[in-house]
């Protein structure tokens, strides 16, 4: 550490390790919301402790849901609100948690009261207008406080009527997931129609999988239209949460760039998380992948550039970009125009930082093309984006002098990331 705001990453030889990342943020937050609305108590095992999950946990407590959290044991106990929100007025700060903002906007519309959702300056730039339009079609009264289709969002909740809603699929799959989570709480059945292409489809399947575990089954109809019976109630249960596959991508990438081997335990080919398909990309680039029921291993080899549509696994774009720097030939990533609306512009800002390292990078309308070149160390900005910090740190495992600014931003989903990355050195 040069100072508290910069993390210097030291190169290491071929790594050989077995790791288990913390629980999935995406699954933890979905399960937490289903449990909060359920009839009866729930226990969430292996729950992630991170900024994003704390934001949602604190919001639910403010809303009157009974919760306890054994952080040492990674277990949450949720009392279950039986389909209602006990508190009828709340001003909630969700920081930069996109899932909390989008999901709560939908779920609070099912209640009765006045709620306001706000967040960081970056959150106030992230679009939410299409979700608000869809919720109004289902009878909700809510608006963007600044009338710019971005947060803050004010909800004058009087229950969700139900009916038919259309939602665009090309901005964020979280809009559809929020509507799906809320739909069973409507007064009458809900039909959801997706307009245009749906980005990040595995996250919608994840939402359906979590809902199913809490007692609500929704046919997916090829993810183009959904018929949700309502009113229905989620049922409390004991729910184990998988390790985070997006977080696992950094360790699989570490194996690729160092020519080593990393096994991630707790994740297999039938995971609820689509991001395990990151291993398919590495396999195409020349790595060897061993898929077992409860573990997946990546062994590095000579890397070659590929052309790949990463729409379905867009949270791993930055991880693949780090690997692409060491490939023979260019790598072209497409299908991810929507990631410009994430915690940062994950196309433009990523391209800028890769160029600082010496790579040739061309921005595309829906992605980027990375051409390897002689690399050198650099101090890299992270834009308060956890995935930028973690993916660029992987580059430092091969290139001396890589320094990551604001390493603490990884607390959003993986507070112990740099400790676990360093553990690769001692695991060999």
Protein model, in words:
With 428 residues, the chain is of the alpha/beta class. It has two domains: 6-22 and 243-427, Alpha-beta prism (UDP-n-acetylglucosamine1-carboxyvinyl-transferase, Chain), CATH 3.65.10.10; 25-231, Alpha-beta prism (UDP-n-acetylglucosamine1-carboxyvinyl-transferase, Chain), CATH 3.65.10. It has helices spanning 25-37, 51-62, 98-108, 129-137, 173-182, 201-213, 245-258, 278-285, 317-324, 348-356, 386-395, 417-427; strands at 6-9, 16-19, 42-45, 67-70, 75-78, 89-93, 112-118, 142-144, 153-158, 163-168, 190-195, 225-228, 238-240, 261-265, 288-292, 295-299, 307-309, 331-334, 360-364, 367-371, 378-380, 402-405. It has a four-stranded mixed sheet with strand order 2-14-16-15. A four-stranded mixed sheet has the order 4-5-3-13, covered by helices on one side. The protein is globular and about 60 Å long. The two termini are 22 Å apart.
């Amino acid at each position: 550490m040069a100072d508290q705001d910069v993390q210097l990453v030291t190169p290491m030889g071929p790594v050989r390790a077995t790791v288990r990342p913390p629980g999935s943020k995406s699954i933890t937050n979905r399960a937490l919301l289903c449990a909060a609305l359920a009839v009866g108590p729930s226990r969430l095992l292996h729950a992630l402790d991170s900024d994003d999950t704390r934001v949602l946990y604190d919001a639910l407590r403010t809303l009157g849901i009974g919760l306890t959290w054994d952080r040492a044991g990674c277990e949450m106990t949720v009392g279950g609100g039986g389909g209602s929100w006990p508190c009828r007025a709340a001003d909630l700060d969700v920081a930069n948690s996109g899932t909390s903002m989008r999901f709560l906007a939908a779920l609070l519309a099912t209640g009765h009261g006045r709620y306001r959702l706000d967040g960081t300056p970056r959150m106030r730039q992230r679009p939410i207008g299409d979700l608000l339009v869809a919720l109004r079609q289902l009878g909700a009264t809510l608006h963007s406080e600044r009338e710019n289709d971005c947060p803050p969002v004010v909800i004058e909740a009087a229950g969700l009527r139900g009916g038919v809603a259309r939602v665009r699929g090309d901005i964020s799959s979280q809009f559809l997931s929020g509507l799906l989570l809320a739909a069973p709480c409507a007064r009458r059945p809900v039909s959801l129609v997706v307009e245009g292409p749906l980005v990040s489809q595995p996250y919608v399947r994840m939402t359906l999988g979590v809902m199913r575990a809490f007692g609500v089954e929704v046919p997916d109809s090829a993810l183009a239209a959904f018929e949700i019976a309502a009113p229905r109630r989620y049922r409390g249960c004991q729910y184990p949460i998988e390790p985070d596959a997006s977080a696992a991508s950094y360790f699989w990438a570490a194996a690729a760039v160092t020519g080593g081997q990393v096994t991630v335990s707790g994740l297999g080919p039938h995971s609820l998380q689509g991001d395990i398909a990151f291993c398919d990309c590495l396999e195409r680039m020349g790595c060897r992948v061993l898929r077992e029921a409860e573990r997946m291993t990546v062994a590095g080899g000579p890397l070659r550039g590929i052309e790949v549509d990463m729409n379905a696994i867009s949270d791993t774009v930055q991880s693949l970009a780090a690997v692409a720097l060491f490939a023979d030939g260019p790598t072209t990533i497409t299908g991810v125009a929507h990631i410009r609306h994430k915690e940062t512009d994950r196309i433009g800002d990523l391209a800028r930082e890769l160029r600082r390292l010496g790579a040739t990078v061309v921005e595309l309308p829906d992605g980027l093309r990375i051409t390897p070149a002689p690399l050198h160390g650099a101090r890299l900005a992270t834009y308060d984006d956890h995935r930028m910090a973690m993916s660029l740190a992987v580059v430092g495992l091969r290139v001396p002098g890589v320094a990551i600014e604001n390493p603490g931003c990884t607390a959003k989903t993986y507070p112990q990331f740099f400790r676990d990355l360093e553990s690769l050195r001692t695991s060999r």
